[in-house]
Amino acid sequence: MPVHPSAHPLILHKITQMRKATTSKKYLSQLMKEVSTFLCYEATASLKLEACDVKTCVGDEKGQKIAERVGIVPVLRGGLGMVESMTEMVSNAQVWHLGIYRDKTSLLPIEYYNKLPKKVTVHTVFVLDPMPISGATAVAAIDILKAWGESMKPQRELAIVFVCIVASTAAIQFISEAHPQVPIHVGLVDAASIMPGMGDIADRLFGTDGAELMTDEQDGMVDE
């Protein structure tokens, strides 16, 4: 099972700050960006390299460069908070968006937004979803990407990597069983019901949770 929980002290420390109910929207956004940077570093370790020539200050030299074209697919809305970190690390990555929600009656994932191009133009796609709870949305996103990547066969297969900040054990198991070949990079794995979680991370990130305005102290960016 290609599941890679991070044991990095900084990631675990910053996730604790993200969990705090008093963490302001501004600070939460900063923390998400920082944690996503660390996870991106770990998740991109499998990218392939190729040799290249480089002109240095002292002459020509041999070097290496990323041999793959990379795509980034944030799952709306929460995944948007992870995009900037990924694009800063992989500056030539292409970004597309998927919108999927879970129907309250059937509990099935419903696709409502899809901006994937008709032609597959990348080799590897990183799916970003900060907090999968059941894993159904993540599996639906991967299903969509695998179907999209069918046009690449038989020459090659689209590589998909799933990146999340906090996930429930149930979500990890569900994703792994549905797509055992997809690596999962996760900051921290919570209990089956994703407790304590991070609240409704998208609402907190975009200020749509209806919460009262923070006090000056709460709105500060003090890393306690």
Automatic annotation (TrEMBL):
Q: What top-level class of enzyme does the UniProt entry assign?
A: transferase
Q: Look up the record and name the cofactor or cofactors this protein needs.
A: Mg(2+)
Question: For this protein, what is the EC number?
Answer: 2.4.2.9
Task: State a single Gene Ontology molecular function.
Answer: uracil phosphoribosyltransferase activity
Keywords carried by this UniProt record: Allosteric enzyme, Glycosyltransferase, GTP-binding, Nucleotide-binding, Transferase
Q: In which pathway does it act?
A: Pyrimidine metabolism; UMP biosynthesis via salvage pathway; UMP from uracil: step 1/1
Q: What InterPro entries does its record include?
A: PRTase-like, PRTase_dom, UPRTase/APRTase
Name of the protein in its database record: uracil phosphoribosyltransferase
**Protein species of origin:** Chrysochromulina tobinii
